[in-house]
Inverse folding.
């Protein structure tokens, strides 16, 4: 049983009598510790695929299973807990301290404010954004936003991180370090599914797929040798 | 002075005499190593093995022959006095070599030509495609395979570098990373072209009229 199993999924958008197929008969499996990057041009269906994979949207056809559960039925129990989903540049205008934003996922799960705050600070330290903890979201630059978005998605210790265009809006020289962070998160055992619009985002991925007109190309299943055994590592800060 | 199994490189735009010498990959590699650090033949051979052993498998005699050719061409010269490597030179170590200004210029010229995309290669691929791809469906298949090759190359090009590693890299690390970045951007352009070409070919497959 794969961690995530997308089986013949199709997703359509309708506007009046017009219909656009954003994702067409896509199948994809992910295992723990895998970093899978999906390259696609704009309007290729890459973001829709990630939203469907994370359970943010449900497909019209096909099934998405996470740890064996039908994501369409168990979404409320899985999304934001076992699956962390984020778009970078997420809430640059939102008010409140960064650490409060990161802790919000745990507060929603009825964790105590003190516990959520402490965990939020730990996650910011983990992604190398501890200096942003007491800043406001609108004060962050692109790379900091990306790291804070990742920290927010990881605060509930999900088994899968789904991240849409992690280097979008990130300064050119800061893109590699953000990608290296995602690589290290996968190396620690959390599966990572990311989209990208440039070749840089494919570097270091265990599998690199492409999507065009909603059709996914590439290896839908990991090669046996690609599956990284889970291993526990010490949590520590990453330099920015 | 090509050795068995090595590819002969084409040199363009440089001094014809220098280009003739730099047609040999071994000579180019040896010249680069001498520019990197003046040294004697044995040490250059050791560095050659470490740096290029995975690509070029040649004996020490080829290294010494390349040094002789580069000397004759005036691209490197013998140094007088002690070795600059700090390594004690035994009786067999021989003379140390350093690059001449002309050698350094010739190497940079050769390098600039090599990192530029070769239009002849593109033309050859185009001709091969015209010969072997006779329908829109076959062309779409070709495009798909081309895309997979591009993606595979981007995936394997290099692992992303962490900020800590960026801080302590030297100029050689920076140059290496910049060359990787250039390749990435070329792949971006290729993938962009593939997206466009696929849209055109799908339109043809669907029976849409095309100009011409």
């Amino acid at each position: 049983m794969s961690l995530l199993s997308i089986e013949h999924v199709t997703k359509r958008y309708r506007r009046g009598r017009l219909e656009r197929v954003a994702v067409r008969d896509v199948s994809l499996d992910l295992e723990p510790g895998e970093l899978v990057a999906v390259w696609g041009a704009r309007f290729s269906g890459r973001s829709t695929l990630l939203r469907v994979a994370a359970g943010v949207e449900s497909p019209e056809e096909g099934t998405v299973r996470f740890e064996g559960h039908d994501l369409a039925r168990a979404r409320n129990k899985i999304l934001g807990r076992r699956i962390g989903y984020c778009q970078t540049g997420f809430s640059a205008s939102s008010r409140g301290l960064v650490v409060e934003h990161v802790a919000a996922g745990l507060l929603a799960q009825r964790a105590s404010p003190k516990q959520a705050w402490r965990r939020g600070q730990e996650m910011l330290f983990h992604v190398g954004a501890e200096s942003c903890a007491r800043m406001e979201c609108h004060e962050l630059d692109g790379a900091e936003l990306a790291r804070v978005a990742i920290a927010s998605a990881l605060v509930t210790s999900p088994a899968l991180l789904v991240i849409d265009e992690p280097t979008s809006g990130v300064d050119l020289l800061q893109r590699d370090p953000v990608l290296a962070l995602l690589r290290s998160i996968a190396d620690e055992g959390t599966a990572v599914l990311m989209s990208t619009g440039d070749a840089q985002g494919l570097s270091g991925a265990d599998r690199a797929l492409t999507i065009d007109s909603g059709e996914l190309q590439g290896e839908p299943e990991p090669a046996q040798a690609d599956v990284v055994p889970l291993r526990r590592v010490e949590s520590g800060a990453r330099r920015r | 002075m090509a050795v068995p199994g090595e590819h002969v490189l084409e040199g363009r735009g440089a001094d014809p005499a220098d280009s003739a010498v730099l047609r040999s990959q071994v000579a180019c590699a040896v010249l680069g190593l001498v520019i990197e650090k003046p040294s004697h033949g044995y040490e250059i051979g050791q560095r050659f093995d470490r740096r290029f052993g995975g690509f070029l498998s040649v004996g020490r005699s080829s290294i010494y022959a390349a040094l002789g050719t580069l000397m004759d061409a005036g691209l490197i010269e013998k140094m007088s006095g002690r070795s600059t490597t700090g390594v004690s030179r035994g009786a067999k170590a021989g003379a140390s070599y350093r690059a001449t200004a002309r050698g350094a210029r010739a190497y940079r010229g050769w390098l600039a030509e090599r990192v530029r995309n070769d239009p002849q290669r593109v033309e050859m691929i185009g001709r091969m495609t015209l010969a072997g791809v006779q329908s829109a469906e076959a062309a779409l298949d070709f495009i798909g395979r081309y895309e997979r090759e591009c993606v595979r190359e981007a995936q394997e090009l290099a692992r992303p570098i962490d900020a800590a590693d960026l801080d302590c890299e030297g100029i050689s690390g920076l140059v290496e990373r910049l060359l990787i970045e250039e390749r990435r951007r070329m792949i971006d352009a290729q993938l962009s072209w593939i997206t466009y070409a696929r849209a055109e070919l799908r339109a043809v497959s669907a029976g849409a009229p095309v100009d011409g």
Summary: Strands of chain A lie at 4-15, 18-30, 35-40, 61-66, 69-70, 83-87, 160-164, 191-196, 207-212, 215-217. Chain A has six helices and ten strands. The longest strand of chain A covers residues 18-30. Residues 4-86+158-226 of chain A form a domain with the Rossmann fold fold (CATH 3.40.50.300).
